[in-house]
User: Fold these one by one.
Assistant:
Number 1:
Amino acid sequence: MDVNEFKSRLVSTISEQGAGCAALFEDSCTAELKGGSLVFREVFGSGGVYRPGDEFAIEDVWEDRKAELVAWFDDPDFCVGLSAVGGNMQG
């Protein structure tokens, strides 16, 4: 899977979960839809409460994190996205 296939599949998967939902990757980053575009963001925390970090381009980390990101589809995890709660995210 290349990064564009990953993003396309991720958009479909997040869309199926409904508005305000974000994909949660290993308690380290999220991906959510904002205005139809994927937004990736670092997160900090655990146990279901996450504090947002900086946004980043998935292409910048793809080679280093590809295996982890692709494996997410085998056991997807979601949280309430930052834009839905206006501060902290909840898993």
Number 2:
Amino acid sequence: MGELKPVQPAAWREGRPILGRDQVYVMKYGREFHTQWCQAVADKWASAPRGLLVTLLADVGTRARCQQCSRAAPAARERPTRGRHSPEPAAAASVIPLRVVGIAHGILYLAARPEFRELLSETAVEPATPLLVGSKRDGMVVRVDVSRDEPLLVVQMDPRASFRDVPYQARLRAPLQRSATKPYAVESIEPAPREPDS
């Protein structure tokens, strides 16, 4: 299989390792490498997270590419011909800026700019998608509404959370559910990073 050379992931999100350029997931005793957070990776993370490692694609040795990841790659190439997006958002498109347009009865309404409407129409909301503030769950994303010119993300706030009227951002990823019918899912919503003072 070749000696494993674990590297630091590009980022951590909700405690999970996020791949960077030329990085892949491998399992300590596995015979495959994984180019995305596929079901096998999700299952390993749920059962034995210490056995899931990140390494460079160049260091996978004789490990084969995961079949589910392989199937997702051709689908990504085919979808644009049908007017759909690939399941792995491009780096620039994987974060969507949002602004607060209202809050009522514990429901927070966040609007995206019109140019993100098509992307959000291809985006699902999976169970337990969080609104994170300082790594604390302040609410749950309940739906995406693309019926308006400015699409909305609707968040059920936690009753104990304090509302913050600040810019937010939505992070997208490939869906984790096998039954997914859309190529994107909302990973989380969080306050947007502050611009550095000039």
Number 3:
Amino acid sequence: MPVDVVLDPVPVDVAPEVAPVDPAAVEVPVADVAPVTAEHAAEQTAAAVAAESEAAQAVAAYVVAVAIGGSRNGVAWPGLGELIELPAHEAAAYLQFGYIKKPE
């Protein structure tokens, strides 16, 4: 015969114990301080975007480690063991899954 059991919720204090911090006592390295002007921030952002874009467009040759059917950009995939040139951002995913490998 089933028995209905109802449990009363038990209050639990889960608030973390954190000591108060005096902001005046915290030293922040100069390099971690935000740029002073909007122009400086824009320059930093533009430089970071340019560097990231340049790195993503870098092309290198890789060896096909797994036979892949179909095509890439309208061209059939090279055969197993053949070389393929890929941009770094695209190659990263194929390397992660073992579809390609760096040439020895």
